[in-house]
Fold this sequence. Notes:
Elements: E1 6-12, H1 20-27, E2 33-38, H2 47-55, E3 61-64, H3 67-70, H4 74-87, E4 90-93, E5 98-99, H5 103-136, H6 151-159, H7 165-172, H8 176-196
Amino acid sequence: MTQGQILGYVRVSTVEQNEARQVEALTARGVQRWYIDKASGKNTDRPKLRELLDYAREGDTVVIHDLSRISRSLADLLRLMEDFDRRGIKLVSVHESIDTSSALGKLTLSIIGAINEFERANLLERQREGIAIAKREGKYKGRKRAEVDDIAAVYHDWVTRHKSKAELARACGVSRPTLDRLLREYEREHIAAHEQT
Length: 197
C-alpha cells in the first residue's frame, strides 16, 4: 500500500456554528488537506465530503472528530466504510478513538455505529411521545417559525440584485427554503398593501 495523505473532514450543522473545536482536535493528527462542510447531518448535499471522496486514494487516512460528522445513519456509515475498505482508505475518529487500519478498529466502528443508531431511534421516539402528550393537553405550539428582523431591507437587496439569496440566507442566519418563504410572504403582503391603496 502506498504512503498516503492525511485528509481532515469537518462538518458543522449550520453556517453559524464554529468549526474551530473540530479543526483544533484534527490539527494534532497532522492533517494535510482540509474539507469543511456547513450542513445538517440529515442533508445529503455535502459537497466537501463528495470532494474528499473523489480526491482520496489508496493509502490515505481520513480523520474526523466523531462519527456523526461523516455519516447520517448506521447504513450511511457502513456504506462509507465498505467504500473506504475497498479502496484502501483508512478512517480515524478522534472522539471515539477509532482507527480502521486495525481489525479491532473496524469492529469497534460497527458497534459504535449501531449504538448511535439505537440512541437516535430512542430519542426520536421520546420526542414523538412528548409531542403527542403535549398535543393531548393542548400545550403543543409546534416549531417556532424563523423570522428576519428587517425583511423589507432583505427583499430590497434581493430584487435590486445587490446580494444573492445564498448570501442573504447566510447573513440572516436562515436556510434558503426559509428565506424563500419569507420573501414570498413579504412580496404577497407588499403587493396586497399596494392594491388596497
